[in-house]
UniProtKB/TrEMBL annotation:
Gene3D superfamilies: lambda repressor-like DNA-binding domains
Domain HTH cro/C1-type: residue ranges: 9-41
Pfam families linked: HTH_3
MF GO annotations: DNA binding
Protein name in the entry: Helix-turn-helix domain-containing protein
InterPro entries (alphabetical): Cro/C1-type_HTH, Lambda_DNA-bd_dom_sf
Species for this entry: Variovorax guangxiensis
Length: 179
């Protein structure tokens, strides 16, 4: 099984055009360690596996991010995209923006966590234990309760959180109202 992981690591690294020495620098190890990983002679720790996944899953250019933003902004569903760690707004669909009592441009690049309902905050607090930030879980459906904010109201319902790699290596979160 270690050998299969090593082969997959090598294949993804080569597909991204990353040399072993550069990948070693990104991972904080030496080139010989990367070589041993790829040959299946050394096992990556869970934290190293998550870091390698983040580095290799990221797109090589921002054109993919621009396409994702266009898809979100043209969606007919209530959906928005935020930075997974900071909750800064990156894009929002027209139907999501219609719920807000202010222009979406006022929120771009700003964290939306201050508008979260108690249920959203509670779900957010469970993410590390679920392996969300380690890349072990890529989607989660949660129940939301209302918040009391007049500018960015949240109604009771269900939302789907989907974690996606952004081109700079960060994770994004697509938030879609499902009910």
């Amino acid at each position: 099984m270690r050998k299969n992981l090593g082969l997959a690591l090598r294949q993804m690294r080569l597909l991204r055009g990353i040399k072993q020495t550069h990948f070693a620098q990104l991972m904080g190890v030496n080139q010989a360690t990367v070589s041993r990983w790829e040959r299946g002679q050394l096992t990556l720790s869970p934290a190293q596996q998550a870091m390698a996944h983040r580095l290799l899953a990221a797109a090589c250019d921002s054109a993919q991010d621009a396409a994702l933003k266009r898809l979100v902004e043209s969606s007919t569903r209530k959906v928005h995209l935020v930075c997974d760690r900071t909750h800064r707004l990156l894009a929002a669909s027209p139907s999501r923006q219609a719920e807000w009592r202010a222009d979406a441009s006022e929120f771009m690049g700003r964290s939306l966590i201050g508008y979260a309902s108690q249920e959203i905050l509670e779900a957010e607090a469970t993410l590390d234990a679920l392996g969300w930030h380690a890349g072990e879980l890529s989607s989660l459906e949660i129940a939301t309760g209302p918040n009391t904010d007049r500018v960015v109201p949240i109604l009771p319902g269900r939302v789907l959180w989907e974690r996606i790699a952004l081109s700079d290596g960060r994770a994004g979160r697509i938030v879609t109202t499902v009910a």
